[in-house]
Write a structure and sequence with these properties.
Elements lengths: L2 H28 L7 H19 L2 H25 L4 H23 L11 E3 L9 H5 L1 E3 H16 L5 H11 L1 H6 L4 H28 L10 H11 L4 H23 L6 H16 L20
Antiparallel strand pairs: 1-2
Helix pairs in contact: 1-6, 1-7, 1-9, 1-10, 1-11, 2-3, 2-4, 2-9, 2-10, 3-4, 3-9, 6-9, 10-11, 10-12, 11-12
């Protein structure tokens, strides 16, 4: 396997969970709900996925546990930010801190150095896998990885801005008061979008833990959730742009390991900074202007 292929394999490995979480967050933000807790949802999903896989011996049940782990935090986010009208940013930061502390403590209680994690094996597509450079990176995913791709496509198609559901979501995010006056259940829509986001974030955490890392470690998401939020902004709140940004950020993370392999002498701190530096450029306006949904982060309550 060439070095370029290795970079692409690593980049796609980082990009896929980021993509799943970002597309879920895209739906929620279009409805006016910002989930800074995405990082915590992914971390909870990763922890619950490994715990479920180790406990039952089945990576499939582990993946289900990962989705439920993300949903648990999403339910709390929906309750606080939609029903209780709490500040979405504060709730998100608090949820991330809680998820980090709880998963770290739980991992030290449950997992030991010799814990074997049942994980997913690669399922390369015949012929396509043999395509030079791109084949091993794109067409050799695990079963859970292919499910992640399917979930992203189905979500983008069914909830796109040209569909009836998508139009209702966009109306809620652009003018919640006007949407409520037309009879749309604004708070229910926002809560459902947050739950969808959390389920996809839990799936993303499970993909990271059971398909890529095949283990759980403290703070293993390491900012991927925040990058997923940035990918939505960089993608101008549309699925194609969000997907492109997610892949770009995944490849940027892969460079952290590729540059030392190439013999490039770069300080480790600078390597860690690469994806976040690209993220800053992406949202600074240098990559093109964008406009967020008008009611993003604005709580809704009937007068």
């Amino acid at each position: 396997m060439t070095l370029l292929t290795q970079i692409l394999v690593s980049g796609i490995g980082f990009a896929l969970p980021l993509l799943v979480a970002a597309v879920g967050e895209l739906v929620s933000e279009r409805a006016g709900a910002l989930n800074l807790s995405l990082e915590g949802m992914m971390l909870s999903g990763a922890f619950c996925a490994v715990l479920g896989s180790v406990t039952t011996g089945s990576p499939w049940l582990g993946a289900v546990a990962g989705v439920l782990g993300g949903l648990l935090l999403g339910a709390a986010q929906a309750l606080l930010s939609v029903r209780a009208l709490a500040d979405q940013i504060v709730v998100g930061i608090a949820a991330n801190a809680l998820a980090l502390a709880a998963s770290t403590f739980g991992a030290r209680l449950v997992f030991t150095g010799g814990t074997e994690v049942p994980a997913f094996d690669r399922l390369p597509i015949p012929v396509l896998h043999d395509i030079p450079v791109l084949g091993p990176a794109v067409f050799s995913q695990t079963a859970l990885g292919w499910i992640c791709v399917l979930v992203v496509v189905v979500t983008a198609v069914l909830l796109g801005p040209r569909t009836g559901r998508g139009l209702r979501i966009d109306a809620t995010g652009e003018d919640a008061v006007a949407a409520d006056r037309t009879g749309l259940p604004v708070r229910r829509l926002r809560a459902l979008c947050i739950l969808l986001t959390s389920a996809m974030a839990g799936l993303a955490g499970a993909q990271l833990a059971l398909s890529e890392v095949r283990a759980f470690s403290d703070n293993m998401t390491a900012g991927i959730g925040y990058l997923a939020v940035v990918a939505v902004i960089a993608g101008r709140w549309r699925a194609p742009g969000t997907a492109l940004a997610a892949v770009l950020f995944g490849l940027a993370q892969a460079l952290q390991y590729a540059l030392p392999a190439l013999g490039v002498a770069v300080p480790p701190a600078l390597l860690t900074m690469i994806p976040y530096a690209i993220a800053v450029v992406a949202v600074s306006g240098l990559a093109g202007s964008s406009r967020a949904p008008s009611c993003l982060t604005v709580p809704f309550a009937r007068a």
